[in-house]
C-alpha cells in the first residue's frame, strides 16, 4: 500500500511509548497506523498523498473523520502498559472506565508530546495539516473542509457536523441546539446528518428533516 510505505519511510506515524515503534490499532480497513499530524514531516507527507489521490480522483474538498483519534481496539493491538498515563490515579466516569477506550494508548508519543497531553489536539492537528494539503491541491482556489473532531479555533479552518446521529424525531430536535452551540464555539459552518445516519428513516421524518435541514449552514442528507 503506497501511502503506508511512503509514510513509513518518512517516519510519520504515532509511536508507542518507546518513541520509535509505530503504534498499531484497528479501524475500518483492519490493522491501522495513525499519522502524527503534529509532525511537520507528516504534514508534508499528507499533502503529497492528497495530491496523488487528486491526480486519480479529481475531488473538490476533503472530509476528515475518525480523528478523535478513533480505534476499534483498546489502545493498541499489543495493549497498553500499566502506568499512570494509561491508568491515572483518577479516572472520570467515561466509556469502559478506561482512558484509552476506543482510542490509542495515552503513553503513545507524538511530536507535540505524549498522547495523554495532546489527545484533544489530534483532530485539530489533522485540520491544520489538511488545510496545508488543500492549499497544495487547490492553489489559489477555495475548497471545502469538514472535520468530525474539533478544538478551540477550528472554525477558522474547517466546518463540522454533529457526528453519527439516528433517524429519530428526538435527534431531529436535538440537532438544532447542537448547531447553535457550535456557533457559540466559533464554528458557524455546521450541520447534522439529515434524515439520521443510523437506523431506517420514515417518509414523514425524512420529509420534515429535509425541510428544516434546508436552513442548516452545512446541509446534507446522510441516511
Description:
The longest helix has 17 residues, at 40-56. The chain starts with a helix and ends with a strand. It has helices spanning 2-9, 40-56, 115-118, 122-137, 169-184, 203-213, and strands at 24-27, 30-33, 62-64, 109-110, 113-114, 145-147, 159-161, 190-191, 193-194, 220-221. It has two domains: 2-160, Glycosidases (TIM Barrel), CATH 3.20.20.80; 162-222. 32% of the residues lie in helices and 12% in strands. The protein is built from six helices and ten strands. The mean pLDDT is 96. It has a four-stranded parallel β-sheet, with helices on one face. The protein is an alpha/beta fold and 223 residues long. The chain is globular and about 55 Å long.
Count of discrete structural domains: 2
Secondary-structure-based class equals: alpha/beta
The Rg value, from CA coordinates, equals 19 Å
**Unreliable sequence segments:** none
Order of helices and strands: HEEHEEEHHEEHEEHE
Top CATH class of the largest domain:
Alpha Beta
Q: Helicity, in percent?
A: 25-40%
Straight-line distance between termini? 31 Å
Q: What spatial order of strands do you see in the largest sheet?
A: 3-6-7-8
Helical stretch tally: 6
Global geometry: globular
Could you state the CATH homologous superfamily of the largest domain?
Glycosidases
Strand content: 5-15%
Question: How is the biggest beta sheet arranged?
Answer: 4 strands, parallel
Mean pLDDT: 96
